[in-house]
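note to self: dont lose this again. the chain is below, predicted strucutre after it. 88 aa total, dont forget to put it in the shared folder this time
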Amino acid sequence: MIKQFGNHTMPETGDNVAKDFGVTRQDADELPSLAAEIRDGGEEGFYKGEIHAIVLPAGKKIPRETVSVDEHPRRDSSLILLPVEAAV
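---
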């Protein structure tokens, strides 16, 4: 399998893809920022017909829950904070 797919880690794969396609760190940070801006339309019901509610069954100590909104991207994120948040 290593012969076919290699043994790169996810960060190495990301670096390779960035080099192959000319994606800069700035480009990579702008994408989720743009997604967050687009998501703001979801608050006004823009995506209402595209996000379908699901019911999560109850567990021993967890009550049944209905999920009907996308929790990501985070509203409190910004283009300025993304490089800091991404550091692992």
